[in-house]
């Protein structure tokens, strides 16, 4: 499990492109036949990429967690960003079509991931955070999440937001998770930008065409920097950082948060005229 240590706004202000990418961009989560994990000390979140590639992969506890099982003191949300997948949690089988979400509660001991029998190409994105109690493992299909239509085509940010793990949906201790899809012709996500000092947010960009990129803005509103992000790359956004982006084509992204509270609208908007 790779570790990323916590940083402050001054780090971003002084960092060059390579340092920004090393600290905040996760470029290679999805490797065939592997489970890759990255731990950030911001709210102690763990990001994971799972690519069964014809195998059955078991979620083990890295030695650094000092736990008998991965979910001994943690919970996790899993979104399938590839072909049909099967997750088995303590003997219970869950079938995840593309963009389905599975919540795994604290205390689940045995978790495996595999391609569905009638498909291949499963790619699962896992986000985990410490948990103080146990909630039941729950599956939500893409059409069953809380759907919010946001933005406007005139400002190039018309998008469909699906909330999966949140206060009025799948219950959790810390993890809040969902997926946003931009409509054709829209390029901006989350505009105006915002911060929320009470929680860290991570984006996984998906459905980005091979010849397209997303320019992801981060840093303090008055001292922004950018990352150039490709398909299936993730960005760690500390609580003090804005997080917004514009693509050269429409795309989707999985957003996940952990921290002090779960209120989706608990954020501090930053007018674009106040950014620099």
From TrEMBL:
GO terms for molecular function: 4-deoxy-L-threo-5-hexosulose-uronate ketol-isomerase activity; zinc ion binding. GO terms for biological process: D-galacturonate catabolic process; D-glucuronate catabolic process; pectin catabolic process. It catalyses: 5-dehydro-4-deoxy-D-glucuronate = 3-deoxy-D-glycero-2,5-hexodiulosonate. Keywords: Isomerase, Metal-binding, Zinc. Zn(2+) binds at residues 194, 196, 201, 243. Signal peptide: none annotated. Pathway: Glycan metabolism; pectin degradation; 2-dehydro-3-deoxy-D-gluconate from pectin: step 4/5. Its EC number is 5.3.1.17. Its cofactor is Zn(2+). This is 4-deoxy-L-threo-5-hexosulose-uronate ketol-isomerase.
């Amino acid at each position: 499990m790779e570790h990323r240590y916590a940083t402050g706004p001054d780090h971003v202000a002084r960092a060059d492109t390579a340092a920004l990418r090393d600290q905040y961009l996760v470029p290679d989560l999805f490797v065939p036949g592997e489970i890759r994990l990255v731990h950030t000390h911001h709210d102690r979140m763990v990001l994971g990429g799972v690519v069964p590639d014809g195998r059955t992969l078991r979620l083990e506890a890295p030695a650094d967690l000092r736990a008998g099982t991965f979910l001994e003191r943690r919970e996790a949300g899993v979104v399938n960003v590839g072909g049909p997948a099967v997750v088995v949690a303590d003997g219970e089988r869950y079938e995840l079509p593309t963009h389905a979400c599975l919540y795994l509660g604290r205390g689940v001991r045995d978790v495996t991931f595999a391609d569905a029998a009638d498909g291949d190409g499963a790619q699962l994105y896992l986000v985990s955070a410490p948990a103080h109690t146990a909630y039941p493992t729950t599956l939500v299909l893409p059409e069953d999440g809380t759907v919010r239509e946001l933005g406007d085509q005139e400002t190039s940010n018309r998008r469909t937001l699906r909330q999966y793990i949140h206060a009025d949906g799948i219950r959790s201790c810390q993890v809040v998770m969902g997926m946003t899809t931009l409509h054709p012709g829209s390029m901006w996500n989350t505009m105006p930008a915002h911060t929320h000092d009470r929680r860290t947010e991570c984006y996984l960009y998906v459905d980005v065409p091979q010849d397209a990129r997303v320019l992801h803005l981060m840093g303090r509103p008055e001292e922004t920097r950018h990352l150039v992000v490709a398909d299936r790359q993730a960005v760690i956004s500390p609580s003090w950082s804005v997080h917004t982006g514009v693509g050269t084509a429409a795309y989707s992204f999985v957003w996940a948060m952990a921290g002090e509270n779960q209120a989706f609208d608990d954020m501090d908007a930053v007018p674009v005229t106040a950014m620099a």
